[in-house]
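# step 3/5: fold
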Amino acid sequence: MILNTFSTGARWLCLVVLVAILPGGSAEIVVLNGTAGRLKVTLNDGWSFHKGDLEAGHLAGLTDSTWVNVDLPHTWNAEDAFDKRPEYYRGVGWYRRVLNLVDAGPDKRHFIHFEGANQVADVYVNGQHVGQHIGGYTAFTVDATDQLRGDGADLIAVRVDNSHDPNIPPLNADFTFYGGIYRDVWLITTSDVHFNMLDYGGPGVYAVTPSVSETAAALRVRGSVKNDRLENAAGVLTATLFDPQYRPVASTQSTIEILAGSISEFILDLGEIADPKLWSPEAPNLYGVTVAISVEDLLRDVIRVPLGFRWFRADADDGFWLNGKRTPLYGTNRHQDYPTYGNAVPDEIHRRDVNMIKQNGFNFLRLAHYPQDPAVLEEADRLGLLVWEEIPIVNLITISEAFATNSENMLREMIRQHHNHPSIVMWGYMNEVMLREPRPEIPEGYYERLLDLANRLETISKEEDGSRLTAMAQSLHEVYNGRGLSDVSDVLGMNLYFGWYYHDFETFGAFLDSLHAAHPSRPLMISEYGAGSDERVHTRQPRAFDFSTEHAQAYHRSAFLTIRERPYLVGSGVWNQFDFGSSHRQDTKNAINQKGLYFFDRTPKDVSYYYKAHLANKPVLHVERERLSRAGSIPGDSLYSLRVYSNHDTVRLMVNGVPYDARATANATTVWDVGFIQGSNNVEAIGTTESQTDRDRVVVRFEDRRPMFTSFTPLGSEIAVNSGAHYSYVDDEGRVWEPDRDYHEGPWGGVGGRGSRIHHRIYGSHDDPLLQSTRIGAAHYRFDVSAGLYEVEFVAAETERKQEGHRVFNLAVNAVPFANGLDLTAL
């Protein structure tokens, strides 16, 4: 038995509810007193799923015994979005379950609330269509009251379709469009007089702070009440503010008249709140506002929404200000998927992700490129992360009124559903919508319609919530395109990748300064910047797009320093906090965007500690760990750079008990050239700041291959070459494949030809970085080894995949053929 007690100001009313869990996890709900409040019960368990479309998927007569049993959240793309087939399934899936509801009478209303289903969902109850929702990233609610029988055998069926639709954003993007009911589903039961449950998926109650200062704040609550009775209702509204310790601070009451079958709006003014505890990243003080509606002296509905007292602005010269203090937004972006789950991620993982972002020292989070799970925003509220949330208009639009209408609807849904979260400071509505310019297939009038849509969305944002800033993100070339789009939103976010997709590290700062000088009244923000990395790829000669950890770390060390030196910037967001699924992308890992500070499984990359050392309010000392297996076969190969990321003043290094000189930390980094010996090398860093001393230890395994070229070595010694590549590769067995080199008087190298690199899927292997490079036109490889018996292993992949006989190879060792007529396509 559950006892819920609600405060209505002058009196207390009790609602006693019995919840019996039946076999299979379904919930039977019996409201005992039939008078008060609302009940919210999860419907996540006990669903049946069918992949593919059916004409009668919603009918009770259909046999679904052969369907797959699933619990929600669920996606049908958790696996096929990551295999190496060219396309993942985008189509229809059906979900069904029986609702064991025992109705308590005609004065109850039953709503089904979906937190997210991608991307078109049609909901049926007992064979009748009760609603359709368009858009995969915002919540929606359907009223199922009139279709539910309450006989314990009500059938809920949902048809979900994630097919491409030219009228539904996103049309094209660098992330996977997983299908399914991938967030929680709830049954919400209310009285027949209740807060508006069909308010664009929002709560129907919104807390507004017209003014806030350190000494006083004004508080107003607005919303709407629905009367589903056949007669008019006279109600009493009560709003109560509770402080972070859940003590009542202020309260007000007002009467309201609601006509039968209609919706009435209300505004409740709670007056001035003295000495409010402000919400900020350092002190995220969360208040709560409880609003109740009573009719005939009985409580009918009650809802509680979060509230944070804070004020902010974005300035073109001084950046972002929060609560009267300059507060640069240093943070990151986040996508919502996770290994084996796809986008069907449990709330605990959402919350853990947000905690990891906070622990990294960030104060800002951009939710890219769509509204995310309520658990994300709840945790951002609790931890004090400032949030930019946006709708998924990415890369392109369709110049149809249907596309514009769907976009506008998504924006209203996002704002109403998440309005009450104090963490949100920006509403975003477009990302890189001219990235693909120029495109000959773009129709006439496209850019004019694009600008018109931006202005329409800007207007809606201000109508819905004038207290927040608006934002859009543009790529490098979009900023100067002269089409007027850059001037629409309050903040212009720029997705800039100097030193990755274009230019170099050094030109980044000059570009920002020139843009600021050309547009001195425009608040600017770096909404994305980053570089991809693969823990298996390493090089002494890092370069853009090689996916070496060395290049990615150099990129971030340069970019973040450039950003911090420019006080006019509103802030910045790393792209991305976590590697994420992007089914059409192929770099060194299949279907993964690898620009995260953490790997897809949330293991931290070394570069994440660079940011933690700069921003976290605690000691940080981290010896790089992504290159614990090293090997060398030429003179000098045992000497390696080794980095430590730290916020200590000085760091000392010990390698195999040998001390290296203490060095001052600069840009959160210290680096030494270290000579490793054969086998295991014990590395210890000691960081010191005043009285604080910390230690970090790793073991580096080094394989010295140089003896192979001076004398015959026993079985087990080997040299592995990553042909055509300037980087080494560490395979699953820990074997280090060395970078290729030209032969110059020993000890080994290629004779003739040049290195070439592709970024293609290598089918039948996950060693893509090993097989994505080749030495074109090589006459032969030469290894100056002593006489003896050697095993030669040749690893190859065919990447052109043309007809048999197109490419045939002959291989020989010391002029002795061992593979003639090798045709990989024919194998």
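# step 4/5: annotate
The longest helix spans residues 446-464.
# step 5/5: archive (pending)
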